[in-house]
Amino acid sequence: MACRYGFVAHGLRLTGLCAAMLLTGSLGFILIAQEQGGDSRQIVAEEFTNARPNKPKPSPTTTRPSTTGSRQRTDSAATNTARRRPPPRYRRSTTDAIGGSATTPPARNNSAASTAASAIPSSAAKVGVTIWRLRPVRATDNGARILVMEDGRETQLTPERVESGAQLRVSDRVRLTIESPRNGYLYVVDRELYADGSMGDPFLIFPTQRTRGGDNRALPGKLIDIPGQEDRPNYFTLVPSPSREDQVAEVLSIIITTQPLENFEITDKPVKLSKSQVEKWEKQWSTRVEKYEMEGGAGQTWSREERAASAEDTGRYLTQEDPSPQTIYLVEGKNNQGLLVTVPLRYKR
């Protein structure tokens, strides 16, 4: 699928969102995170959001007697209690390996031994990813909307969350949000995946000068949208690609490092990288990953807090009480200088 994004150097091809995949050293061998029912792990979300700033304290208010005269409460305390969101629950995914055609569904592995062996401490490094699908505004929508340009006219659309295992339709419009609970620098590499397990040339699609002026700093509570809200267009459109009929997915490698990467220049277009450079990064930072999907998150609309925290020229950050990512990746410790999570976006022909 080709993605219309205002440049032709490399048409990012986005498609049906499948379960998270981790690319190993062999290009013909893919690991796919397969959902496992009945296993929720709420602590992952709490530890992720605890890295965000605290919500500002409300201004003090005077107390007033209750109707019984035996208890007192403040108006602000009652309001805060009513508005407090319950912590989201995340169901865990196990990691299964498949080889050969990437269209073959992975076998479910529910053995207790396999689950225990793959457990990664909840204190490990994390990265949050949310996929948004844009749809027409409905009268019942009460969240934020995004202003887009279509056919020379401005129109408003509603972004809604999509689970990582969902499939998207041709011509769907999608956006990607990434959040890191630790300081660092974000890079996103795109490659095509074919049915025989081979992959196309790697392109660095973020950062670019088009989005956030090339600023790729990742901070707790600060969301990074790809494309950015201010970009034109500010979404990816999914359309079939005629170049190779055996393409089965786009593979996005999300890299967060403690120091900026070197040896390439950031421009207003994606930068073609050498395969050896990407392989070097994979050897440095690719490791075991566990994926957690928010229960009931699919279909939730973009909040005003998320819109403000991802805008380019605002100082707004998400607080611990604001929405958490749709998908959280727990990354096993390997190198404290960086981490790499590979997310495939699979489509069906």
Note down, in words, how this protein is organized.
There is one protein chain. The protein has 349 residues and is mainly beta. It has one domain. It has five helices and 20 strands. The strands form three sheets. Strands 1, 2, 3, 6, 7, 8, 9, 10, 14, 15, 18 and 19 form a twelve-stranded antiparallel sheet that branches. A hairpin with an 8-residue loop joins strand 11 (184-194) and strand 12. The longest helix has 11 residues, at 275-285. The model is unreliable at 1-11, 13-38, 66-82 and 95-116 (pLDDT under 50).
Output the keywords:
single chain, 349 residues, mainly beta, 12-stranded antiparallel β-sheet, 6-stranded antiparallel β-sheet, 5 helices, globular, disordered N terminus
Averaged pLDDT, please? 75
- Whole-angstrom Rg: 21 Å
Give the number of DSSP strands: 20
Determine the N-to-C terminus distance: 9 Å
Secondary-structure element string: EEEHEEHEHEEEEEEEEEEEHEHEE
Number of domains: 1
The low-pLDDT segments are 1-11, 13-38, 66-82, 95-116
How much helix is in the residues?
10-25%
**Main beta sheet: strand number and arrangement?**
12 strands, antiparallel
How much of the sequence lies in strands comes to 35-45%
The number of helical segments is 5
Q: Structural class given helices, strands, pairing? A: mainly beta
- Overall shape: it is globular
